[in-house]
Write a structure and sequence with these properties.
Layout lengths: L1 E2 L15 H15 L4 E4 L6 E3 L7 E2 L1 H10 L2 E4 L12 E3 L14
Parallel strand pairs: 2-5, 2-6
Antiparallel strand pairs: 1-6, 3-4
Length: 105
């Protein structure tokens, strides 16, 4: 997680790529950096189910519930948009979550 303006960073390594690990890493990042107004994610399957060109991202309902609980807005970035200015925090992962309810891969 990287805060957009201060560039403060939180990094956590996990042993798995499950939704639980993903959300726990968010919580730990929030403890370290505070909860931003908006979190932008780069299409990792834990958060974004689908993001077609020219359309709004379709988020995982579980991730949206998590966002509502912690009071941040969720946004989806397409590949190469990680440097886009004006976002509060940016999260990425090198893989997909092991969530069986998620489509594709």
């Amino acid at each position: 997680m990287v805060l957009a303006y201060s560039r403060k960073m939180y990094v956590e390594f996990t042993l798995s790529q499950t939704m639980e690990q993903f959300l726990a890493a968010h919580v730990n990042g929030f403890h370290a950096l505070g909860v931003p107004r908006k979190v932008m994610v780069d299409n990792l399957r834990c958060a974004v189910l689908q993001h077609r060109r020219g359309e709004a991202a379709q988020f995982n309902p579980r991730y949206l519930d998590f966002a509502r609980h912690y009071g941040f807005g969720a946004g989806g970035l397409r590949g190469g948009e990680g440097q886009r200015e004006g976002v509060a925090a940016y999260c990425t992962s090198c893989g997909m979550c092991g969530e069986t309810s998620l489509a594709g891969g």
